[in-house]
């Protein structure tokens, strides 16, 4: 029974858009929730209170498979023959994998030149995606793929696609299942294009409406400091969902500043190197439903946190560690209580982006400077042991 083996489709009653016989699954969503005091101590949590949702264990190595199986299934139901995305590397790896496994579609991917780790690029190439490298970054690639897919009638699987978000809701269902349906106090997630955070809000809203839970956790979305649009808008300028009418002047004003300053996203966490998140409004809605907060963390904090995740025996890519670094900051501020139950989402596998890891741990200071020095990152104390 293939649906039962999928951590997404065994919840198909909550994903009613897909006729079971059309579902395209590769066994996604079989991911563990792991309680770890090592990382808990680092953050400053009480014993037994810190959990990591290990989404790197998905078939393509990131949480994207949760959403891709849903969007891909929808693409199949409408008879699409080609599917496209812009990507910082994980969405494209996931799309390419579903295409080559199912042989139902050709993958067309748009990536910013030099803005993707080799681990992720090599997946797309091995899986046979038509790979278009454009001069520019993710934000440019996103704009381009939206134009091109519309012009040529190619099915778009970026998280502007609502079926992606439906699939990603199941990450929260599995977290709850692992906690015997006891609602945690905090969900902490990195924020890039803001698809995950948007889908988590929708998941908890629906579960409450259905009467399956009696309260919702709080949401913390963590930006990299070099790609901090949500933090700027939500925490610094007070932008709120406001019943679906967020203050457009604030949004437009910020976009104009990005345009006129030529400001580009810049962080070691290439997965979330995004300045113009397409799910901004849905994320604002999730922040309202889940009484959310937004924080930004530096590249140094991200790499330090990532090393702690590695030392705990799991490992993750830099963007994922933003969740742990953000939880630490919120714990230090006293926003997160040490007795709270906190779930950090580890969005992508350690082997996705080994360059930063090797540079961080290497004894070769020259190599370290070459890779990371320009970003103002220094080697952490413990790495010298
Ligand atoms: N973590 C990882 C490992 C990611 O790959 C991404 C997004 C995020 C976090 C941010 O998630 O967009 O839902 O806020 N990666 C996209 C990509 C942009 O193209 O693979 P989000």
Automatic annotation (TrEMBL):
Task: Select a single GO molecular function from the record's annotations and give it.
Answer: threonine deaminase activity
Essential cofactor(s): pyridoxal 5'-phosphate
Q: Where is the Tryptophan synthase beta chain-like PALP domain?
A: 25-348
Q: What is its EC number?
A: 4.2.3.1
Q: List modified residues, type N6-(pyridoxal phosphate)lysine.
A: 64
EC main class here is lyase
Record-level GO BP terms: isoleucine biosynthetic process; L-serine catabolic process; L-threonine catabolic process; threonine biosynthetic process
Q: Which UniProt keywords apply?
A: Lyase, Pyridoxal phosphate
Family of the protein in this entry: Belongs to the threonine synthase family.
Could you identify this protein by its name?
Answer: Threonine synthase
Shown segment, full-protein numbering = 69 to 453 of 472
